[in-house]
Amino acid sequence: MEVYLAQPRGFCAGVDRAISIVNMALQKFHAPVYVRHEIVHNHHVVKELREKGAIFIDNLEEIPTGAVTIFSAHGVSPAVRQEAAERNLRIIDATCPLVTKVHTEAKRYTKKGCHILLLGHRNHVEVEGTMGEAPNNINLIENLADLEKLNIPPEQPIAILTQTTLAVDDTQIIIEAIKKRFPNVIQPQSKDICFATTNRQKAVKELAKTCDLILVVGSPTSSNSNRLAEVARSRGVKSLLIDDVTELNSQDLQNVQKLGITAGASAPEFVVQNLLNWLRKHYPTEIHTIDVGSEEASFSIAKNLLSPELL
User: How far is CA 118 from CA 10, 179, 233, in A?
Assistant: First the structure.
């Protein structure tokens, strides 16, 4: 079997930063450290941090007053920040800087008098946080049907924002439809869908030119991992999203001659390596790399992680 590894794959800069923040907080403040929502959407990452003493919660009311609390990489709304302040929580913000940029754009466009159309997935925690920046001035557009339901006059100034982990091609289809309805719309900046999402989807498109099956390593709760599998299928190639090698069996690989492997932006590399070791054990395997470009970006750690008020 020929195996083609996508590059880049796995952790992006925002995920790496968020996980580092939790580890540093545990080291500095000791367990327990509370994290609102999963720090990133990966079962292996969450399990490892939970074993170290991180406690993952969905509601701030579950956290003791004054406790060290980390906001996940997906970001939170101003209402959540206000509730945290009222509970006197000691906050460390692990929001991905690219998500923060979208929040900033939401506030800026609202001040300019634009109504915002946010392209994203309903009930996703990142979308909830962004919508919280302009709750009375924003509509969520998940698909073309949502666009058709809008009751907004064509002369209304409109700005488009996007969730950072969307499928690039599908998003562009919706943007084009919005442009036809609102000719003067302000389009999203090209980097609203993050570079890591774009690069990983680009790599999958290259895998699809060669492979019979593409395995996407990632948890089912991961938006960007799900989009990778969808991109492969949109190219006519079967794709499976697996959390790890335990979800794979020989039946899945029957008649597969050329296997593609990638990993979502929140999936650890050790999971990919475990998969490769299993393949080597069960099949004669030749491994190739399909490289669509390097990623050298890194994000600084939250400034208040070491600040006196947290001591």
Answer: 26, 14, 25
Nearest to 22 by CA among 56, 64, 58: 56
What mean pLDDT comes out for the span 28-48?
97
Catalytic annotation present for 126: yes
The separation between the first and the last C-alpha atoms of the chain, rounded to the nearest angstrom, is: 55
In degrees, rounded to 5, the angle at the alpha carbon of residue 105 between the alpha carbons of residues 201 and 144 is 55
Report pLDDT digits (tens) over 131-153: 999 999 999 999 999 999 999 98
User: Is 60 exceeded by the pLDDT of residue 248?
Assistant: yes
Q: Confirm if 33 and 302 have CB atoms less than 8 A apart.
A: no
Per residue in 65-99, pLDDT (tens digit) is: 999 999 999 999 999 999 999 999 999 999 999 99
3-state secondary structure 87-154: CCCEEEECCCHHHHHHHHHHHHHHHCCCEEEEECCCCCHHHHHHHCCCCCCEEEECCHHHHHHCCCCC
CA distance 275 to 90: 39
The active-site residue out of 2, 48, 51, 126 is 126
80 in Cβ contact with 126 (< 8 Å):
no
Cα dihedral sign, 199-5-301-30: positive
Residue 257, number of CB atoms within 10 A of its CB: 10
Q: Are 17 and 299 in contact (CB under 8 A)?
A: yes
Quick one: pLDDT at residue 305?
Answer: 63
